[in-house]
Specification:
Shape: elongated
Order of helices and strands: HHHHEHEHEHEEHEEHEEEHEEEHEEEHEE
Number of helices: 12
Number of strands: 18
Strand content: 15-25%
Helix content: 25-40%
Largest sheet: 8 strands, mixed
Strand order of the largest sheet: 1-11-12-13-16-10-9-4
Distance between the termini: 51 Å
Length: about 425
């Protein structure tokens, strides 16, 4: 969430930012500014009335001590007190509307973010690895997965609906091996502490990281018991949600920062409106596994931490020997909460396309302000908002796609990447 004072003082820049981002909130900005003006005028008037009330109350007390009649003045003060209550209630209602609008305004992009409106305008930063070539016609991942008995697409759909899958046999073991490998890599080599969070989150938690209210249509929600408002829960779309909110409403110390957390969770996304070739096979499914990395940092260190976070995510694909590229999001493609974002896209050789497997984002204070996560530089210092960052380290379905299409042989067998073999009982080949 952006600071209201910042919006007030930089309204033209915020309006231009919303236009560059193609945000629906452009139309709400003028309304927000007008409500802010009314709210501040209301507060000023209320404070003036309270000051007058305090002054007259002292006069009433003095009259009583002097045995003078204060009946008329007391009646006036009762009327004034009622007026103050009405103005205060109106101010609170206006502030609630302001806060609701603030939740719909996206983050301000960092200065290096390129202008642009579509994926084609994203900026390629670098590439890694040599794209594989084959002396046979490589099969697409869903063909290999079915032939090798690794994934059952039909029974997944039968159990839960379209775009749900069942990993089975060595396919399930490959998923588990990838999860364990990533967690071990991030905890033993990159200094992250492993977290096993809840797979469900309440509305306040989902709002804290920016999923709500904007993306509610993409979330799986559990029905709420009207007698218990806390029973309204959402299946998490990413471990970023519960892990970032671990410190919601807390004040950390500067000595505790930076904090590095990594977590495995299943992720649940309706992907409302998704269709076409991207929904085939494992490319866009409603439940998938992911290992996430989350950082809490001081404001001055967050962009150096962002670069190291990118390196941590890249190291997964490098260890697996999978070629990839890194692109920086343009303004029109930048996610709602991010100030700067890199995508890591792995190469799928049979499909002849890059697939996103990690978004590496710096949210600056945007999430921290929503979730009220702060720190003190020293005892007695004024609390400041931390900066939060996250990256997938990495999302598994598309990594599995890249492994299947990259390491296939002409006879239909699959070579297991060397780094995964210890997690698969030494198995070097599937099929």
């Amino acid at each position: 969430m952006l600071d209201l004072k910042f919006i007030r003082e930089h309204s033209d820049a915020v309006r231009q930012m919303l236009q560059h981002r193609r945000s629906d909130a452009v139309g709400d900005l003028d309304r927000l500014l007008e409500l802010d003006r009314q709210w501040r005028e209301n507060l000023t008037h209320t404070q003036s009335l309270k000051a007058h009330q305090n002054k007259v109350s002292q006069q009433i007390a003095e009259r009583k001590r002097a045995n003078q009649d204060a009946t008329e003045t007391i009646a006036e003060m009762r009327a004034l007190s009622q007026q103050i209550k009405e103005f205060t209630a109106a101010a609170n209602d206006t502030k609630a509307t302001i806060d609701a609008i603030l939740l719909t305004i996206p983050n301000v992009p960092e200065g290096s973010t390129p202008l642009g409106t579509t994926e084609a305008d994203n900026l390629e930063i670098k590439t890694w690895g040599e794209l594989p070539s084959f002396d046979f016609e490589p099969k697409l991942h869903w063909e290999l997965a079915e032939q090798l008995g690794l994934v059952d697409f039909q029974r997944g759909a039968k159990v839960a609906g379209s775009n749900f899958v069942v990993f089975k046999g060595l396919g399930a073991r490959l998923e588990r091996a990838l999860i364990q490998f990533m967690l071990d890599l991030h905890t033993t080599q990159h200094g992250y502490t492993e977290i096993s969070p809840p797979f469900l989150a309440n509305r306040l938690t989902m709002t804290g990281t920016g999923q709500l209210p904007k993306f509610e249509a993409d979330m799986y929600r559990c029905d709420r018991n009207e007698e218990n408002p806390d029973s309204e829960l959402f299946l998490i779309p990413t471990a970023e949600v519960p892990v970032t909110n671990l410190f919601a409403g807390e004040i950390l110390t500067a000595k505790e920062l930076p904090i590095y957390y990594t977590a495995y969770t299943p992720c649940f996304r309706r992907e409302a409106g998704a269709y076409g070739r991207e929904t085939r096979g494992l490319q866009r499914i409603h439940q998938f596994d992911k290992v996430e990395m989350v950082k809490f940092t001081t404001p001055e260190s967050s962009y150096a931490e962002h670069e190291s976070l990118l390196v941590n995510a890249e190291s997964v694909l490098q260890a697996l020997g999978l070629p990839y590229r890194v692109v920086q999001h343009c303004m029109g493609e930048l996610s709602f909460a991010a100030a700067k974002c890199y995508d890591i896209e792995v190469w799928a050789p049979a499909a002849q396309r890059f697939l996103e497997v990690s978004s590496c984002s710096n949210f600056e204070a945007f999430q921290a302000r929503r979730a009220n996560i702060r720190f003190r530089r020293e005892a007695g210092a004024k609390p400041e908002f931390v900066h939060t960052l996250n990256a997938s380290g990495t999302a598994l379905p598309r990594v599995v796609i890249a492994i299947l299409e990259t390491y296939q042989h002409a006879d239909g067998t699959l070579r297991v990447p060397a780094v995964l073999r210890p997690y698969m009982g030494g198995l070097s080949q599937i099929g």
